[in-house]
Write a structure and sequence with these properties.
Length: 108
């Protein structure tokens, strides 16, 4: 597993949900042929890191075990309907910072 972890890349990007809502996302790219259980374990470990970092937030942390070489950990930001755009941008930025910190902590 150590070799798989070393050859795995993680990137945080701002994606959009199916409802066109900003969705901070970590894309985890594994070497071809990585066992499904290893991919699942790494994605869940990273999701747990994000969960622990966002205990005071009303965000949902979700995991998608994607195709052969990718999995995704993403935040569903809970934003009130009447939130100002500048406040929403601030929440989105905070979400991205949280994901970047989780990647860094996981890789240490």
């Amino acid at each position: 597993m150590r070799e798989t972890k070393k050859n795995t890349t993680m990137t945080a990007t701002m994606e959009k949900s199916e409802y066109d809502i900003p969705q901070p996302t970590i894309t985890i790219t594994f070497p071809k042929g990585t066992d499904y259980r290893i991919k699942r374990a790494i994605a869940l470990q990273l999701a747990a890191e994000v969960e622990m970092a966002t205990l005071g937030d009303k965000w949902c942390v979700s995991v998608i075990h994607g195709c052969e070489t990718k999995s995704f950990v993403y935040l569903e930001l809970v934003l009130p309907e009447n939130i100002k755009r500048t406040e929403a941008k601030s929440e989105e930025q905070r979400g991205m910072e949280t994901l970047a910190a989780a990647i860094k902590n996981y890789q240490e």
